[in-house]
């Protein structure tokens, strides 16, 4: 059947699968995360629940007779609750949010009151267990609001009739237009990859840039100032564990590393890693880090900065198109002796529970 130019105009075809298959080594984050369901607005909003904290730090040292403790946060504490600091149990009788002061009974439940050092951890335990007590006052922790904006990624393919007909090495049977289209798709995929990793949120009406992973992670940021080590990676995993990040399991977590850090990890001594390789192989490649908190994939991604590593949960991150604006190609038709088409996609990133992710920076190669 003959296809005429007027039939090509406005013809839209999805190219999402083509983009994912083009070059996984250049867009590893897109291939790790994939694409989620569409959003319905240029500003995408989601709400997150978070448990009350259970630990705080004592910000003023106290001897064994002091009954008022100053802490960095009173969120974990309520009256008629017990808390543990060191080997001592205390009973909380009053909480003052304004001064971050806890009034306590020292040496509770048969424990011995002892000096409390600066920055000692105090952890809430349980209620006082008083029989016949009145019901506690209810407390509620409001959900937190997060948002991101959609960003448009677009480019145009134009090939003259003459160029399409000239035989060229390496073009293949599909022709020059399809060859150039594939190149543009890879360029746009790389732009989206970089926005997902390092995008800075900008919203000025019709001009929008999404917020990326590097910008979202703020709580668990480790400044290394040295070479990557197994200890640094283990410490990061422990931070996430302590924050409850592995409550649903660790299967979605991965260390995403640039080339320089991938080589450094592969150079870990044999006592720190376990390898299975053929007898005739030389060198070593680390694809997984195994520690007390799980088995984590190591994903090579040279779109990161050379001095950083991400530790992310792919289950908590989604790349989502705006409505039906997943990457697609549309013929613009002939307006002269050339064929033209446009590739467009509009996406945002949903990044849930920022405290469940981590970033290491300041690493040396």
What does this structure look like?
The chain has 365 residues and is an alpha+beta fold. Helix content is 19%, strand content 35%. It contains eight helices and 21 strands. It has a six-stranded antiparallel sheet, with no helix packed on it. A six-stranded mixed sheet has the order 13-21-17-14-16-15. A hairpin with a 2-residue loop joins strand 11 and strand 12. The radius of gyration is 28 Å and the shape is elongated. The termini are far apart.
Task: Give the DSSP E fraction (strand runs of 2 or more residues).
Answer: 35-45%
Distance between the termini: 59 Å
Number of strands: 21
Helix content: 10-25%
H/I helix tally: 8
Class inferred from helices and paired strands: alpha+beta
- Major β-sheet annotation: 6 strands, antiparallel
State the shape. Answer: elongated
Radius of gyration: 28 Å
Q: What is the mean predicted local confidence, pLDDT?
A: 88
List the uncertain runs.
278-283
Strand order of the largest sheet: 3-8-5-6-7-4
What's the order of the H and E elements?
A: HEHHEEEEEEEEEHHEEHEHEHEEEEEEE
């Amino acid at each position: 059947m003959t296809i005429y130019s007027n039939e090509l105009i406005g013809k839209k075809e999805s190219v999402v699968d083509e983009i994912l298959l083009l070059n996984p080594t250049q867009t590893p984050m897109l291939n790790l995360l994939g694409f989620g369901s569409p959003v319905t607005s240029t500003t995408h909003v989601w709400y997150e629940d978070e448990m009350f904290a259970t630990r705080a730090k004592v910000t003023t040292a106290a001897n064994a007779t002091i009954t008022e403790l100053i802490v960095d946060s009173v969120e974990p504490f309520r009256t008629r609750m017990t808390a543990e600091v060191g080997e001592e149990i205390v009973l909380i009788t009053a909480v003052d949010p304004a001064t971050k002061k806890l009034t306590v009974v020292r040496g509770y439940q048969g424990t011995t009151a002892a000096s409390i050092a600066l920055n000692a951890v105090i952890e809430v335990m349980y209620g006082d267990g008083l029989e016949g007590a009145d019901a506690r006052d209810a407390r509620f922790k409001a959900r937190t609001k997060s948002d991101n904006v959609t960003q448009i990624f677009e480019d145009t393919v134009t090939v003259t009739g003459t160029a399409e007909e000239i035989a060229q090495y390496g073009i293949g049977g599909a022709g020059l237009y399809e060859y150039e289209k594939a190149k543009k798709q890879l360029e746009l995929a790389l732009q989206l990859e970089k926005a997902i990793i390092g995008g800075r949120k900008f919203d000025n009406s019709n001009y929008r840039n999404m917020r990326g992973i590097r910008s979202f992670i703020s709580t668990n940021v480790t400044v290394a100032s040295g070479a990557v080590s197994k200890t640094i990676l283990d410490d990061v995993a422990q931070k996430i564990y302590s924050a409850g990040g592995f409550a649903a399991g660790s299967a979605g977590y991965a260390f995403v590393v640039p080339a320089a850090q991938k080589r450094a990890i592969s150079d870990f001594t044999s006592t720190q890693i376990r390898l299975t390789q053929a007898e005739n192989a030389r060198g070593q490649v680390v694809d997984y880090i195994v520690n007390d908190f799980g088995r984590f994939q190591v994903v090579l991604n040279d779109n990161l900065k050379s001095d950083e590593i991400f530790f992310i949960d792919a289950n908590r991150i989604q790349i989502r198109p705006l409505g039906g604006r997943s990457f697609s190609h549309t013929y613009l038709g002939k307006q002269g002796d050339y064929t033209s088409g446009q590739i467009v996609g509009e996406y945002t990133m949903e990044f849930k529970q920022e405290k469940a992710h981590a970033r290491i920076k300041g690493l040396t190669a």
